[in-house]
Amino acid sequence: MAEPVMKLQPRSALHGLDLPQRVGILSFAEAPPATRLSYRGDASAIGDALGVALPSEPCRSAAAADRAALWLGPDEWLVLAPAEEREALVAAIDRAIAGKAAVVVDISQRNCALTITGPKAELALSTGCPLDLDVAAFPVGMCTRTIFAKAEIVLWRRAREEFRLEIWRSFAPYVVGLLNEAARDLD
Question: What radius of gyration, in Å, describes the C-alpha atoms of the chain?
Fold first, then answer.
C-alpha cells in the first residue's frame, strides 16, 4: 500500500510575523498575492498589454483597476497585477515586445508586500528610511527604490496616509521587526 503524499502549501514570507496595529494611528497589512514583473525597454511597448500606460516621469506610478506600473529607472518599471493574472499578462507582454529590445522577468516570488496606513505611517517609515516622506516632498503616486535600515525596498505612496512596501522575502522578518519597534514608540 502506498504511503500518502503530504502536499506542501506555499506560505507568505510574512506568515507568522506580528504586523503592528495601533488603532487610529497606524495599521500594517500584508498585501494580497501579486504578479510582479520587472520590465526593461521602451515605455510605449507594453501599455496596451498591461492596460496601463507606463509612467515616463521619474519616480511616479500609474495605476488602473488592479494593475500598476512603478517607474524605477529610465527604462525600468515594476509591474504589479493580481497573482491569478500572471500567465495571461506575461504572454500578452511577450507578444507586445516580440522583436523589440526589451525584456520582462517574472519576480513574483522574490518579493512580498506590506501596506502601511494611518496618520503616523510617514513617521513609522521615517525610522528606517532616509527619504523625506512628507507629502509635499513624497506626494501621492510617487515611488522609488530605497532602503529601510539595511534592507532594499520599493516604496510607493498610494494615498496621503497609505504606503506600499515591496520587500525581498528574505528581509521581511527584519523589516517587520523594525516596524514593530517604530510602532511601539508612536503616540
Answer: 18
